[in-house]
Automatic annotation (TrEMBL):
The chain crosses the membrane at residues 12-35, 136-158, 187-208, 323-344. Keywords: Membrane, Transmembrane, Transmembrane helix. It holds the Pfam family PepSY_TM. InterPro entries: PepSY-ass_TM. This is Putative iron-regulated membrane protein. The lineage of its organism: Bacteria, Pseudomonadati, Bacteroidota, Flavobacteriia, Flavobacteriales.
Length: 352
């Protein structure tokens, strides 16, 4: 047993000094990104918000979007009002983004430095800004953090404090540096174990989404083939169809790599708490539906993985959930620093 404990301590130490640093970067960038909607709304209100703060009727938004699309010869993406953005944006094949009023179709301007900053921040959060392999580094570190670093930490804490829980949650603030770092490390780690586990587990999904879906597919009871497949669906139809259940969020136009059109729907335009419900339609170049998904009829695995985003950002629990995620973003860095200082304090004592 002593040998096993020694191995677990060794694994926890070296994963903390390596994987812990990567997770700390993801944590800090994620904490800052939590408040992205509020910050860019405040700084870019002329670009993102309508004058009275109230969105036009749905049929007006769709009619305006249709008008804007017809003005563009080479649209790549079109995003309708959602979350912090009440306006309509179009990105052309040259990568230029322009924003339009959702009622008058007036051109409001192009992407600002604030928007670009948060796009870069999200890129660092998801891939450390490293092309291609960066997302695998981040995704793998999230899973390792969840499976090994957190679990080994909880095991070591429970082994020491299972019969004296109060002591396991106590920080002796006037203690010497080594003891203080240890107390902060073990107390903060155990207090934030559950939310950190949720963040790390859902964070891995954004890299390994197909593996997650395959794993959760064991919960599915039957295959579902949508009767919509084979039907005709066009851009004009998408921009004319209103519904009380879903709102058109985005249209993805054909690219050099794909001739498909893709339509993404959400169950609300404003940012709210609760489950995330979406609908997606993919058509080929002949406007024939080749793929169709709807939260209300999706397989259980699809319904579960669709919630990874709202759990990862805390939006499932509204403002309080987001605030908790914000706090959790700093915890990996605290654990990394206190663990590092405890390690060097121990090494220093051994040399004395």
């Amino acid at each position: 047993m002593k040998k096993t404990i020694k191995i677990i301590k060794f694994v926890h130490l070296w994963l903390g000094l390596t994987c812990g640093l990567l997770v700390s970067i993801s944590g800090i960038t994620g904490a800052l990104y939590v408040w992205q909607p509020e910050i860019i709304r405040a700084l870019d209100s002329d670009l993102l918000l309508v004058t009275d703060g109230k969105l036009p009727a749905e049929n007006v938004i769709l009619s305006t979007a249709n008008k804007i699309v017809k003005q563009h010869k080479n649209p790549q993406y079109m995003f309708l009002p959602y979350r912090e953005q009440q306006t309509i944006s179009v990105i052309n094949k040259e990568g230029i983004t322009q924003y339009y009023h959702p009622e008058t179709a007036e051109l409001l301007g192009a992407k600002t430095k604030t928007i670009i900053f948060f796009e870069d921040l999200l890129n660092i959060h998801r891939s450390l800004g490293i092309p291609i392999i960066g997302k695998y580094i981040v995704g793998t570190s999230s899973i390792v953090f969840f499976l090994f670093l957190l679990s080994s930490g909880v095991f070591l804490w429970w082994r020491t404090y299972s019969n004296k829980l109060k002591k396991g949650l106590y920080i002796k603030w006037k203690a010497k540096k080594k003891r203080l770092n240890y107390d902060i490390h073990k107390t903060v780690g155990i207090l934030f174990f559950i939310p950190l586990s949720i963040i790390a587990f859902t964070g891995g999904y954004f890299t390994y989404h197909q593996l997650y879906k395959s794993g959760f597919s064991i919960l599915d009871t039957a295959d579902i083939t949508s009767p919509k497949i084979g039907e005709t669906f066009t851009v004009d139809m998408a921009l004319a169809e209103t519904s009380s259940s879903y709102y058109l969020r985005a249209v993805y136009f054909p690219t050099n790599d794909s001739n498909n059109f893709k339509y993404r729907y959400v169950n609300h335009r404003e940012m709210t708490s609760g489950l995330r419900k979406t609908k997606e339609i993919t058509t080929n170049e002949n406007n024939i539906i080749t793929s169709f998904s709807d939260h209300n009829s999706d397989l259980l695995s699809e319904k579960i993985t669709a919630q990874m985003y709202v759990f990862h950002l805390g939006e499932i629990a509204g403002f309080l959930g987001r605030f908790l995620i914000f706090l959790c973003g700093f915890v990996p860095l605290i654990l990394f620093i206190t663990g590092l200082r405890f390690y060097f304090s121990s090494k220093k004592l051994k040399r004395c």
